[in-house]
């Protein structure tokens, strides 16, 4: 059984003022978060601004983060694409680094039918049979939902071991949980739905908020797992304003602004994403202060 852990941080990609990748800051931030509750890092996913990174930048980030957290946390490479060929090439290259897994997003823009989605993920899995793969279903961004029936079929492929569920649908997650092996891990793709999804058999979360409250998320999940749902609920409700503030506009604009407020110089987002507005920054400052995070 593959165990990625419970709190997986979807790592931001820091940039210098000139827009180049700040690898030193990525290394420093990852090392810090590994000591603050993060079990594994998803590098170059949505939060890492993968659409505006080059494949070379992504590969360098995989290597840098792997070196920074060796022996402390696992590294999952975001190597998905809406081109099956590109996804295979990037995943093969990442696998040579000895990473712990790969995140494979549902192909975006070209809207393949379910048969095409099944063949896409199956072909990638067969190309890297020794690398554990996590499916990533986020129809709000990709324009296509990976249906539960397709996930259930894909879960039968030995190295497809998990899914990041970001549909916002508890019913869809329940359908998947009903018909897959307990070893097939379901991770919440939304911080605010982590606790509800735990109640229907999820393992943990691929988190944005863990940049700021990783230890709190660990405590919440552990409390639930050890039969203390009241404590888990208290933590969830305490963190709920932060969960919502981090998604008032397109991720990762808010979390980068929050990290910059904390003194982590992660820089701006790359265009076409824009900087946080003054109003958003003010909201984040208020929420972080309330949680004693500033």
Structure explained in plain terms:
By secondary structure, the protein is α/β, with parallel strands linked by helices. The chain has helices at residues 23-34, 55-69, 84-95, 114-127, 139-142, 148-154, 170-179, 194-198, 210-225, 229-245, 253-261, 278-290, and strands at 7-10, 40-43, 74-78, 101-105, 133-137, 160-165, 185-188, 204-207. An 8-stranded parallel barrel has the order 1-2-3-4-5-6-7-8, surrounded by 5 helices. It is globular, with a radius of gyration of 18 Å.
Total strand segments: 8
Shape: globular
Radius of gyration: 18 Å
* Strand order of the biggest β-sheet: 1-2-3-4-5-6-7-8
Helix-strand string: EHEHEHEHEHHEHEHEHHHH
> Helical content, roughly?
40-55%
Beta-strand percent range: 5-15%
Structural class: alpha/beta
Kindly report how far apart the N and C termini lie: 39 Å
> Tell me about the biggest sheet?
8 strands, parallel, barrel
List low-pLDDT spans.
none
Overall pLDDT metric: 97
Determine the number of helices (DSSP H or I, runs of at least 4 residues).
Answer: 12
Secondary structure: elements and pairs:
Layout: E1 7-10, H1 23-34, E2 40-43, H2 55-69, E3 74-78, H3 84-95, E4 101-105, H4 114-127, E5 133-137, H5 139-142, H6 148-154, E6 160-165, H7 170-179, E7 185-188, H8 194-198, E8 204-207, H9 210-225, H10 229-245, H11 253-261, H12 278-290
Parallel strand pairs: 1-2, 1-8, 2-3, 3-4, 4-5, 5-6, 6-7, 7-8
Helix pairs in contact: 1-2, 3-4, 4-6, 6-7, 9-10, 11-12
């Amino acid at each position: 059984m593959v165990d990625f852990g419970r709190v997986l941080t979807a790592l931001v990609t820091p940039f210098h003022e000139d827009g180049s990748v700040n690898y030193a800051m990525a290394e420093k931030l990852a090392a810090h978060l590994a000591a603050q509750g993060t079990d594994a890092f998803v590098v170059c996913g949505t939060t890492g601004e993968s659409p505006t990174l080059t494949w070379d930048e992504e590969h360098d980030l995989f290597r840098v983060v792997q070196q920074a957290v060796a022996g402390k946390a696992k590294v999952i490479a975001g190597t998905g694409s809406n081109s099956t060929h590109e996804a295979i090439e990037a995943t093969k290259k990442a696998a040579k680094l000895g990473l712990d897994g790969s995140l494979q997003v549902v192909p975006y823009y070209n809207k393949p039918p379910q048969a095409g989605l099944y063949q896409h993920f199956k072909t990638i899995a067969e190309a890297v049979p020794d690398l554990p793969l996590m499916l990533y279903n986020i129809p709000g961004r990709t324009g296509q939902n990976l249906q539960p029936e397709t996930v259930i079929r894909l879960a039968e492929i030995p190295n497809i071991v998990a899914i990041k569920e970001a549909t916002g649908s508890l019913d869809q997650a329940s359908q998947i949980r009903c018909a897959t092996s307990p070893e097939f891990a379901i991770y919440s793709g939304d911080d605010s739905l982590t606790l509800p999804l735990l109640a229907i058999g999820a393992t943990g979360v691929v988190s944005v908020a863990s940049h700021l409250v990783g230890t709190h998320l660990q405590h919440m999940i552990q409390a639930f797992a050890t039969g203390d749902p009241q404590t888990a609920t208290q933590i969830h409700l305490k963190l709920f304003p932060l969960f919502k503030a981090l998604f008032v506009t397109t991720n990762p604009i808010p979390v980068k602004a929050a990290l910059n407020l904390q003194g982590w110089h992660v820089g701006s987002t790359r265009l076409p994403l824009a900087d946080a507005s003054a109003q958003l920054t003010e909201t984040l400052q208020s929420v972080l202060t309330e949680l004693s995070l500033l």
